[in-house]
Structure formats: C-alpha cells, structure tokens
Specification:
There is one protein chain. With about 475 residues, this protein is an alpha/beta fold. It has 11 helices and 20 strands. The chain folds into 2 domains: about 325 residues, TIM Barrel (Alpha-Beta Barrel); about 80 residues, Immunoglobulin-like, CATH 2.60.40. The strands form 4 sheets. It has an 8-stranded parallel β-sheet, with helices on both faces. Strands 13-14-15-20-17-18-19-16 form an 8-stranded antiparallel β-sheet. Strand 7, helix 7 and strand 8 form a beta-alpha-beta unit. Helix 10 crosses helix 11. The chain is globular. The protein binds 4-nitrophenyl 6-deoxy-alpha-L-galactopyranoside. The site of 4-nitrophenyl 6-deoxy-alpha-L-galactopyranoside has 7 residues, from strand 10.
Length: about 475
C-alpha cells in the first residue's frame, strides 16, 4: 500500500521529463493506491466466499400487498406498491420471527462453506436490526425485542465466521433524508441526516467490536454525491474506531461526485463493489485482478429480501452458483451469495438445498477457494484456474469436460508442469507445444466440478523441444 502523496510526487517529478497527465487535486478521493496488505485485509481476501443476508420488515409481506403480488425486488415493495411510510412502518408491530435461531443460521453458513457473512443492519426502509439509540424504528420496539444483530454476530463468530455490516445510507423512514439538495432547507435537513447516519455507524462500530467490515449501499443519489467529504469522513471514522475494518467502494464519492473510482481513476475504499448480479468476463476483464473486489449475487433474478413467489424468474441452481464462486476466485475476487430469510426467521427450501450442495463440494474442495486467487494463466474452455498466493501448485476446476477428455493448459514462460492429480488419481501430462500442455483426463462421468492440482516447476529451463514458428 503506497500513500497517494508518493504517487503524486512521482507523477509531478516525471511531468518535467515526460508527458504525464497531471492528476486532478482531490481532497476526498482515494487515500492510498494498490491493494491493502495488512493482516485484516488479507483475512478479508482469503475468505473469498461469503453469505449475504437481507432481512427486514419486507420479509413479512414477502412481495405481496393486499392480495396483489409485485414481482419487483421484495425489499422494494414499499416503493413498488406505493405504500405510505406510516403504513409500511407499522409492519414493525408484526415483527415477531419465532423461528429465528442465530445459531442455526450460523451452522447453515458454516455448512455452506462461507467464511464471512454480511447482514443488512438497516436497508432502504430504515428499520434497524439492532436497538439503535438514534431511532425508535428498531427491533427493540417490536414484539420480538431481541437484539438480532448481537445474536447473529455472536453465533457466526462462534462458528469462526467473520461478520460485516451492510448499511443503507438511503433511508425511506427518516424525515431528513433527501435525494437531492435543492434548497437551503434541504441542505440543513440533510446535514442533520448525515449526523444521524454517522451516529448510527459509530454506534455499530462501537457496540459490535468484532465487526470486520462495512458494506455501504444507497449512496448513489445526488445528495450523497454532493457530499463526498462525508463519505471519506465515515471511512476514516470507522477505521479509527475499528482499526483494520474493511470498507467497500460503494460508500465513496470524491470532490466531483465521482463514485467508486475517483476523478484520477483510483479506487476509493478498500475493494470494488460494483459487480452486482454479474461477474467480470474471465478472459477480457483481467484489470480486476489489480485490485480487490467482491461480486454479490441473488439466487433468483432480482430478489434480495424474501419473496413468496420465485416462479417468475430463473432460480439459479447450486452448480451455477458454485461456478460463480470459482469464477470470482479465479479472478482474485470475493463472492457474496444472498439469502433472504422469511418473516418467521426460516430459510426457504431452495436456499437450504443450495447450502447443502455447495457446502458438500466446499468441504472437500474449499482449499481451491479459500486463500486462493488469480493464477496468472490464460483461461481455458473447460473451467478455471486458482492458485494460493506464492504457491507453485495451480488448481484446475473443471466444469466442462471436452468429449476427448484432453484438457488444454497454457503456462507462462519458463514454467513446467510436473504432475496432475485429482485425489488419488494421477493424469498423464503431455507437453504439446512451447508452454502448452494436455492433461489426459480419464474420469468419464462427472457429477460435480472436478479439482485437478498441477505441480509446477518454475525454475525449469525451456527445453526448446518446441520452437516458435518463424513467419
Ligand atoms: C441495492 C439495493 O437497492 C438492493 O435492495 C440490494 O440491497 C442490493 C445489494 O443493493 O441495489 C443495487 C445497487 C447497485 C446496483 C444495482 C442495484 N448497481 O450498481 O447496478
């Protein structure tokens, strides 16, 4: 991690000799360049696979209002069904999830193979899953009363799972929230709002000392873009209360309202969080391997909160989702898979099935995900490579076995493949061209993605057996 000032000084000193584009001076832009290398960030990175949980009052109606089903995201029901704030807010008197069992949730996450969990402490509706002293609109004032956040943090931590807090700055409940600042009154109200949000964030960081990260959302409106200073102040405040805490880029806006990446194209926050319900292209978007990032994913097309009807869109299968976990890891990113518990605190059967199936694979093969990242080799059609940082062995995760059973591998210059193994089975490794190999895959029937570990020798000299064609 280099401080920006060093980069600036370098750019300025170079400017005299070469044609270097002068960086725009920024007060609220990126504070550092390059990936964070401290222990907390390394842990965040090594986790790779996380469980996202969207839970709030929206879980009670589950996308249905007055007998009518709204197919848009369930957590947006207040907006899609045009429900007045007072009506929506009174759902809190129905919040009594008798089935809620933090330890059961944590056990399911553990079974899934998730190393971290990110929970909506407050979504756009403004309802807080912890007894915040800054608003009455919180779980402490529901029939349930219990501090859900505290129970979850304790239960997940007991299973060895890190907990991060999702926090929506956008707030449909708070009277001082503004989408834009169009008058002095807006400006005054929004200042009050930013004070409120700052207090809540400080409260979260202080009262839940094991929190590992903050995942900001609802920061895309003009009001926030005009207050880039606040986004930096929050990042700094959280890091001073909880040193090492990891903050996503979605929080941040610079002096000019530029988000995620500042006006000098430097990533703000600790990791990029713009990949939502999509992944970078595994052959074309290799720029993402230069920074930390995380993609988040829904099981149906676009439902984060619990929706009663999942029949209207494609529901992803465990194998599709598992491929995404591997895909993200192969490009040096984290993958956050969403779950939306129902109003009673239970998980739907599809989600339990996903946890069971992915978990079974992770139990055996998690070593190619956790602690692993981009291997530096060209992607091939059969699947993905991952590698543990600094290791000489490279993992192949095979999703599409060609009918020939021959798996092509192109290595970087000077690397020799010594062996290819899958558990006890060893496969023939054939060098077929310069830096190019075929792995003879002999297992005919595949029911799950198969892991083949390649041992390599990076000190090997080129044999010169295969020469580049002179044309
Ligand atoms: C937001 C929320 O509105 C949604 O309910 C959910 O919490 C999700 C994780 O985040 O939705 C977004 C945010 C960003 C984009 C799209 C939807 N985006 O960058 O394309």
């Amino acid at each position: 991690m280099k401080h920006i000032t060093t980069t600036l000084a370098l750019a300025i000193s170079l400017a005299g000799t070469a044609q270097v584009k002068q960086p725009v001076p920024l007060k609220y832009g990126a504070q550092t360049t390059g990936k964070r290398t401290d222990e907390a960030m390394q842990k965040w990175r090594s986790n790779r696979f996380g469980q996202f949980i969207h839970w709030g009052l929206y879980a009670i109606p589950g996308g249905v209002w007055n007998g009518k089903t709204y197919n848009y995201a369930a957590e947006f029901l207040k907006s899609s069904a045009r429900i007045p704030t007072a009506t929506w807010d009174s759902l809190m008197y129905q919040f009594d999830p008798q089935q809620f069992d933090a330890r059961a949730w944590a056990k399911m996450a553990k079974q899934l193979g998730a190393k971290y969990m990110t929970i909506t402490t407050k979504h756009h509706e403004g309802f807080c899953l912890w007894p915040s002293q800054y608003t009455d609109f919180n779980v402490g004032n529901t029939p349930f009363r219990r501090d859900i956040l505290k129970e979850l943090v304790e239960a997940y931590n007991a299973e060895g799972i890190d907990v991060n807090f999702y926090y929506s700055v956008l707030d449909w409940h708070h009277p001082d929230w503004r989408y834009d600042i169009k008058s002095p009154e807006d400006s005054i109200a929004f200042r009050r709002f930013l004070g409120f949000a700052g207090n809540q964030l400080k409260e979260l960081a202080t009262n839940y000392p094991t929190v590992k990260g903050f995942w900001f959302d609802g920061t895309w409106d003009s009001s926030i873009k005009k207050n880039g200073w606040w986004t930096l102040e929050m990042e700094q405040m959280l890091k001073s209360v909880r040193p090492g805490v990891v903050v996503n880029s979605r929080l941040r806006a610079d002096d000019f309202g530029k988000r995620h990446f500042d006006s000098n194209n430097q990533l703000m926050g600790d990791y990029e969080s713009g990949y939502e319900r999509r992944l970078p292209n595994a052959t074309k978007d290799l720029q993402v391997t230069k920074w930390d990032w995380e993609a988040c994913m829904t099981v149906p097309e676009n439902q984060w909160g619990y929706h009663k009807d999942w029949t209207v869109s494609h529901v992803k299968s465990p194998l599709e989702l598992l491929e995404m976990v591997v895909h993200a890891t192969s490009m040096g990113g984290n993958f956050l898979l969403n779950f939306g518990p129902d109003g009673n605190g239970g998980f739907r059967k599809e989600e339990r099935h996903i946890a069971g199936t992915i978990g079974k694979w992770m139990e055996k093969n998690g070593h190619v995900i956790w602690n692993c990242g981009y291997a530096g080799w060209e992607k091939q059609d059969w699947g993905y490579f991952t590698r543990q940082n600094g290791s000489t062995s490279v993992n192949m995760i095979v999703f599409n076995r060609p009918v020939s059973g021959l798996l092509k591998v192109k290595v970087t210059n000077g690397v020799k493949i010594l062996s290819a193994r899958s558990g006890n089975a060893a496969f023939k490794v054939e060098e077929i061209a310069k830096n190019e190999y075929l792995i003879h895959h002999t297992i005919k029937k595949m029911t799950a993605p198969e892991v083949i570990v390649l041992e390599t020798d990076t000190s090997a000299q080129n044999t010169d057996r295969y020469q580049d064609a002179k044309t």
